[in-house]
Amino acid sequence: MKLLTHNMLTSHVKGVTKGYPLLIKATEVKMNEVEFNPQFVSRMIPKLEWSALVQAAEELGQRQDLPGELVSDYEKNEDFLKKVHRVLLEVEVIEGCLQCPESGREFPISRGIPNMLLNEDEV
Amino acid sequence: MSSQEDGAAEQPGPDTTVGPSISSSSSSLESDGTTGDIITVTIGATVPTGFEHTAAEEVKEKIGVDARISKDRGRIYFPISTDKLFQVHLLRSVDNLFVVVEEYDDYQFKQSKEETLMELQQLASKLPWNNALEVWKLNRTLKKKKGYRKGGNGTKVKPESTDAAVADTEQQEPPEAAASSAESQAKTESTPEAESSQQDSAEAAPEAKVMKFRVTCNRAGDKHSFSSNEAARDFGGAVQEFFQWKADMTKFDIEVLLNIHNVEVVIGIALTEESLHRRNISHFGPTTLRSTLCYGMLRLCKPQASDVILDPMCGTGAIPLEGAIEFNSSFYVAGDNYDMAVNRTVNNICHIQKRRADKGSAPGLPIDTVRWDLCNLPIRTSSVDIIITDMPFGKRMGSRKKNWDLYPSCLREMARVCRPGSGKAVLLTQDKKCFSKAISRMGGLWRKLHTVWVNVGGLHAGVYLLKRTGAVFGQTPEDVYESRGTVNAQGDEKDDKELSEVTSGV
């Protein structure tokens, strides 16, 4: 699971109102090299929940020097874009789980695949 | 298309362009022997029916020529010069490629079967084979250079020997072409050198190896007096006689195509050994979609840089994987509720990544896989740009009754996650009735833009291109109605019951 995907995932357990962002508990993380595309990154940034991304990176010990708030004029800052690229696409959680911040319900991650299926009583 | 000739060719342009009027191509074989001649031929391509225009667009974009769409559905034709031949292998919307030997727009078949078949036999020795054979040879060299797509599909390594075999047989051609055979020998040795950097081009001594071939005939139309088998047999017999090749249905070097569609007759030589349509998938599922069809669907929605593209019923991941490779400035999330499906998807992704790593490229693809329930997606509202998927048809997967409940639920959930105003969906389904009904109730959320009618495994299906309206989810009349679950001015009691069943699970 890449952090870009994590940025979109939310808990949908019945009754939960604040199911985002999911907390990450990782037992295995891998780095996977992805070709850098600056246009992709700069256009993706406005679509992200920035603080959730930073928090997730922090949880994995991959934050490095990513700022807590977006700087203006990042589109031309290739250094910055490369850091974001790395965190969005190259860090992969292979084993672990995602935890709903409100209910505590854990969704396992195995082989890089988060299992977000709910049980009958949770729907 | 004009041809480009280097060196001192004695005859100018017209003879070397290929079209219905061409007979002798001997002038194209005269060359100074060093650079090799560039000839222009017509390439035919089979594409998933319904996506002919998409394929023509791709040809225009990647090769820069206008393609002609045949009346025989699922085929397009375009010209190409041999120096650009490698470009045909960049096309992602074509299943099979062939080089045209000759085309007849309005072939006058004889009345009786015997006469017709006799004429086909005679045709074999009169056709302008040379250019097509040159292209076939050149194509073999190109494929070896690429270390072609999936390994182990039977490519044999003997270009010189086949060159010699062809050169030898060309000496048996009728007198007027006899002059060309000496040049053709010179040419076959020079062309590989000009085009290929491999060592095989430099080697000389060919052994006398007999070429193996087969003829495949596709016939459509109700006024023919013969069957495709008969045509293939008789035409094939004459080809064998003419070239002194050996017929072999399974281990052939050359595949000759005889395509007859009413009065349109096309003779060609295949350039693809196996259909390209399964190129990305190594782990199949029961309903894996052809990559060419996936590509057609993706082109339809025109992915932009940074688009978030979801396939909520991904199966083996064929669609998002094709997207991650071909439209790689977007990001794909593939999801399914079935564990075997998500596992196969991940296996397919890993397979491609490993192949890329082996070639020395950055292996990672912009794609992720999640296991989820598509009627209850764990995705933030309005965060997805495009939804693209192959919906269960109710035949090999799921059931018609299930579709009745499934389609409205998933269309609503897809509308929730899709960005209002700019979002799009491209949905493939065979259950057109159920889909149309489900969509007609969602006018507040989805608008139909365009439908492409396709053929998937013999079934007539539709690819629906939808636009997400600007309406915010939860505030359209349908949403308000469903949350109340009572008043419906137009529906009948049965409809009310269905709708309340749908909402109860949400």
From TrEMBL, chain A:
Query: GO annotations under biological process?
Result: rRNA (guanine-N7)-methylation; tRNA methylation
Subcellular compartments: Cytoplasm, Perinuclear region; Nucleus, Nucleoplasm
Family annotation (Pfam families): Trm112p (PF03966)
The protein's matches in CDD domains, at most eight in alphabetical order, are given as: Trm112-like (cd21089)
Task: Write out the entry's keywords from A to Z.
Answer: Cytoplasm, Methyltransferase, Nucleus, Transferase
- Which GO molecular function, any one, fits this protein according to its record? protein heterodimerization activity
Any one GO cellular component localisation term in the record: perinuclear region of cytoplasm
InterPro entries to which the protein is assigned, alphabetical: Trm112, Trm112-like
Instruction: State where it is primarily located.
Output: cytoplasm
Q: Give the superkingdom in one word.
A: Eukaryota
Q: State the similarity comment.
A: Belongs to the TRM112 family.
Q: What is this protein called?
A: Multifunctional methyltransferase subunit TRM112-like protein
Origin species, per record, is: Collichthys lucidus (Big head croaker)
UniProtKB/TrEMBL annotation, chain B:
Q: Known SMART domains for this protein?
A: THUMP
Q: Which GO terms describe its cellular component?
A: cytoplasm; tRNA methyltransferase complex
State any single GO MF term: RNA binding
Q: GO biological process annotations for this chain's record?
A: tRNA methylation
What subcellular locations does the record give?
A: Cytoplasm
Compositional bias of type Low complexity: which residue ranges? 21-34, 172-206
Q: Where is the THUMP domain?
A: 172-271
Q: What UniProt keywords apply to this chain's record, in alphabetical order?
A: Cytoplasm, Methyltransferase, RNA-binding, Transferase, tRNA processing
PROSITE patterns per the UniProt record, alphabetical: THUMP, UPF0020
Biased-composition ranges, Basic and acidic residues, are 491-500
InterPro entries linked: RlmKL-like_Mtase (IPR000241), RlmKL-like_Mtase_CS (IPR053943), SAM-dependent_MTases_sf (IPR029063), THUMP_dom (IPR004114)
Gene3D superfamilies to which the protein is assigned, alphabetical: 3.30.2130.30, Vaccinia Virus protein VP39
Principal subcellular localisation of the protein: cytoplasm
Domain of life assignment:
Eukaryota
Disordered: where is this region?
A: 1-34, 147-206, 484-506
PANTHER family xref list: THUMP DOMAIN-CONTAINING (PTHR14911), TRNA (GUANINE(6)-N2)-METHYLTRANSFERASE THUMP3 (PTHR14911:SF13)
Q: Which family does it belong to?
A: Belongs to the methyltransferase superfamily.
- This protein is called what? THUMP domain-containing protein 3
- Which species does the entry assign this protein to? Collichthys lucidus
Q: What is the lineage of its organism?
A: Eukaryota, Metazoa, Chordata, Craniata, Vertebrata
